[in-house]
Amino acid sequence: MGNKSGSGFYLSKSTVAFFTLLFAALFIAFTVFAVLYLRSRTGFCNFAEEEESDKVKPLNCTVVPTPGRQGIWDHYRLPTSLVPINYQLVLWPRFHPESPESTFTGDVNITFQCKNATDVILLHSEQIEVTVVELVRFEIGTEAPQILEVWRSSLYSYLVINLNETLTENSIYVLRISFSGVVPKLNYHLLSVYTDCIITTQMEPTYARTVFPCFDEPSFKATFDIHLIYLPNYVALSNMPAINTSPISDGDGVIWKVTTFNTTLKMSTYIVACVICEFSHIEMIEHGNEIRIWARKSAIENGEADYALNITGAILRHVMDYLNVSYPLTKTELVAVPEFPASGMENWGLIIFHEDSLLFNYSSDTKEKRRLICSVITHEIGHQWFGNLVTMNWWNQLWLKEGLSSYIENTFPPKLETEMFMTITWHFLFMQSYLQDFSYTNVKQDDLWHHWQKAIDSQNEVKLPASVKTIMDKWTMQTGYPIITLNTSTGTLSQEPFDAKRRHATSANNTWYVPIEWIKNGSAQPLTWLKSKEGTFPEMKITSENDWILLNANITGYYRVQYDALNWNRIINQLIKDPEVFLSLFISGILFLSHLHVEEFNKVNNTFIIHSVFHFFFNTRDQMQRVMSVACWLGFHECLQMASKIFREWIKNPTKEGLPLFIREVILSYGIESGSFQEWEIIWNIFLKQKDNKSDYSDELLFALSFSKEPWILNR
Ligand SMILES: *[C@@H]1O[C@H](CO)[C@@H](O)[C@H](O)[C@H]1NC(C)=O
Ligand SMILES: *[C@@H]1O[C@H](CO)[C@@H](O)[C@H](O)[C@H]1NC(C)=O
Ligand SMILES: *[C@@H]1O[C@H](CO)[C@@H](O)[C@H](O)[C@H]1NC(C)=O
Ligand SMILES: *[C@@H]1O[C@H](CO)[C@@H](O)[C@H](O)[C@H]1NC(C)=O
Ligand SMILES: *[C@@H]1O[C@H](CO)[C@@H](O)[C@H](O)[C@H]1NC(C)=O
Ligand SMILES: *[C@@H]1O[C@H](CO)[C@@H](O)[C@H](O)[C@H]1NC(C)=O
Ligand SMILES: *[C@@H]1O[C@H](CO)[C@@H](O)[C@H](O)[C@H]1NC(C)=O
Ligand SMILES: *[C@@H]1O[C@H](CO)[C@@H](O)[C@H](O)[C@H]1NC(C)=O
Ligand SMILES: *[C@@H]1O[C@H](CO)[C@@H](O)[C@H](O)[C@H]1NC(C)=O
Ligand SMILES: *[C@@H]1O[C@H](CO)[C@@H](O)[C@H](O)[C@H]1NC(C)=O
Ligand SMILES: *[C@@H]1O[C@H](CO)[C@@H](O)[C@H](O)[C@H]1NC(C)=O
Ligand SMILES: *[C@@H]1O[C@H](CO)[C@@H](O)[C@H](O)[C@H]1NC(C)=O
Ligand SMILES: [Zn+2]
């Protein structure tokens, strides 16, 4: 999707790209949200305690909690009556690399302000044992209410603290809490112990509450003073630079090291980060900003972090220049973690990557890998502004940060390889005013629409059929998406809401403003908007014998397309006649146009297509990876069919290298899903050979194996 033409930044094209990204980001955010939601509902993080309310050990507890009692803890969102200001946080993992589980202890002093009088303090806390030590009032000489009881409301992971009287409006209080927990080994969240002796956090979206009690919602921003305690042969990292170290002795006479990090900027809990590791690093200084890349010692010695170090400074500088908002931190650390559960996590000042997304082996890795690393780094750097500095108000607006970071990701890297030169377009002006207005705060999507509208109004090149808010609200407030039908004898486009589950149009009357990117006879046509239920576009009529039309050619719009038989036949003829020219269109088409007849498809030279598919994937990796995993997940017939075809081709000679990294998981998973027991067995045997070296590949294999539809296979 990136702008591949080495120089310049053309307005019309980038406008389309900008819409494209926003739509794509919306789509991805919905999917991500759905997945997270499903996981949280299907016991993804269920642990033993599932009673309605569990008592914790408060020192001043006098009342026995009644299970099932009702109150403000029955709401999914925190009340806004209390607002955190600062967290003083001590974390002490009792680190034993040889044992599968180690424990950690911690203390936190949360300074908060009471905005509305309340006699209940609600905090998030999950999977940790908590002891509330005391509540004091910040103003010396005044007394805080007494803690009556402390209990856990498991439904929404709240720690509930009941007080004997209300907190005073506008007063500031400090709540002292001690806690302890288990550092899970190789789990999907927080404080995980990895191979090579490393502990790292992953807080997004809601794992901070499993590390320390907190107001764990993105809009509750505060500053953090973090102290980490660890054995002296390790290195400790956090969002901010270390400002002090001192020794501490535990009960057994072992001397540990305490590192204190400087106070963070005002930020959300989901980007708090800590790493304790035995890594080494390389570093450079760019515009007064200290950039360090941390990785396994052998990787650093082999020079595998050199590429990342070489590009990070330039990316940071360029993004900063174009956004015209300076980078507020004095250091940026990038850590390469084996088996990290995401390709990258944008924690402010301490960005954590999966090794595959950061380390580059000059002797064995491909240029493609280099591009991937550059994209991931740029995306995470983009988040330092979009997400960290300006944060979405709530997770349903995740795409505010993902969309804008993806825009940065797709705009910068192609330029870095050549000479960096871009005109400051209205996109950047828009982003600049957006960042300037909302730094250190949270935004709702209307804030974005408002700024976007201002930018649109200030220029002449781009014309929209309605206000930004009107257009975008249709996409974000209505469920589902449209299916567009083209009648090529009249040139009429019509839209109906599409029911993805039942795979046909529904009876609802929803309409959308649909941007139509389209192609006639192989050449791209000007962007067209379908503004209402129906519209007639004479230029979309098929008149001559060879005319054919393809809508949503680059699958950039979030909608499906249906043609009449005439146009279908022309498209298929075109495909049979000249597959090479038609290939990219075909592939983009095939995923979303689920109405292609299978008999027609089988006329096409499959061998050719399968080989070409790989070629095409290599050129549009990012887009295809996303499109394919989403499309297959949604059950698009053509996606599943393609995955299964590629899989069957591959399994004849199942080498790790035979499948490109970025589609490996999708192909394996959906290949298994549609495959036979013999195929499952082959993958299982590969897995058994791989499982000891604990690579990504073995995780992918295991993940794929779980996709089998046969219960008796899964029971093995
Ligand atoms: C209970 O609270 C009182 C003040 O209300 C305090 O003096 C006492 O020390 C607390 N008890 C414990 C065990 O902390
Ligand atoms: C919290 O405050 C108490 C009392 O002022 C202090 O002794 C303790 O060290 C503080 N804890 C942290 C984590 O800063
Ligand atoms: C909180 O206080 C503000 C002003 O002090 C008031 O407008 C608002 O209604 C209060 N909210 C609640 C939930 O009591
Ligand atoms: C609540 O506890 C505080 C501190 O112990 C005490 O000063 C106050 O009188 C108590 N209030 C009520 C209503 O009991
Ligand atoms: C901590 O950060 C503040 C604000 O950025 C800075 O003024 C101060 O010098 C830093 N402290 C140390 C010890 O570096
Ligand atoms: C770093 O960048 C410079 C200039 O672009 C280039 O000459 C050098 O080879 C690069 N080094 C590495 C390790 O990528
Ligand atoms: C932002 O732009 C103004 C005017 O062009 C310039 O003076 C200023 O230095 C820029 N600030 C940053 C942080 O780039
Ligand atoms: C990097 O590639 C070279 C050549 O293929 C290989 O010998 C070396 O082991 C690789 N390094 C790592 C850490 O994989
Ligand atoms: C759709 O619109 C028609 C006519 O305007 C109306 O009769 C019908 O009830 C609407 N259907 C729904 C689901 O709103
Ligand atoms: C689809 O993407 C390609 C490559 O990015 C671009 O050249 C082409 O113009 C796009 N097609 C349309 C209809 O915009
Ligand atoms: C296209 O529109 C014409 C005129 O309304 C209609 O007769 C024809 O059936 C339509 N074609 C399809 C495939 O719906
Ligand atoms: C199908 O495509 C492959 C690869 O381009 C080619 O070798 C083969 O001859 C083609 N088969 C037919 C029947 O055209
Ligand atoms: Zn992101």
From TrEMBL:
Membrane-related topology note: Single-pass type II membrane protein
Chain ranges of the Aminopeptidase N-like N-terminal domain: 83-271
Molecular function (Gene Ontology), one example: peptide binding
Gene3D superfamilies per record: 1.25.50.20, 2.60.40.1910, Neutral Protease Domain 2 (1.10.390.10), tricorn interacting facor f3 domain (2.60.40.1730)
Compartments, as annotated in UniProt: Membrane
Membrane-crossing segments per the record: 16-38
Span of domain Peptidase M1 membrane alanine aminopeptidase: 307-419
InterPro entries in the record: Aminopeptidase_N-like_N, Aminopeptidase_N-like_N_sf, ERAP1-like_C_dom, M1_APN-typ, Peptidase_M1, Peptidase_M1_aminopeptidases, Peptidase_M1_dom, Peptidase_M4/M1_CTD_sf
Residue ranges annotated for the ERAP1-like C-terminal domain, each copy included: 624-716
GO biological process, one term: proteolysis
One Pfam entry name: Peptidase_M1_N
Cofactor comment text: Binds 1 zinc ion per subunit.
Active site as annotated: E380
Main subcellular location: membrane
Signal peptide, first to last residue: none
Names of the cofactor(s): Zn(2+)
Domain of life: Eukaryota
Entries under SUPFAM superfamilies matching the protein: Leukotriene A4 hydrolase N-terminal domain, Metalloproteases ('zincins'), catalytic domain
Any one Gene Ontology cellular component term annotated for this protein: extracellular space
Keywords assigned: Glycoprotein, Hydrolase, Membrane, Metal-binding, Metalloprotease, Protease, Signal-anchor, Transmembrane, Transmembrane helix, Zinc
Binding locations of Zn(2+): H379, H383, E402
Family: Belongs to the peptidase M1 family.
Protein name: Laeverin
Organism: Erpetoichthys calabaricus (Rope fish)
Underlying gene: LVRN
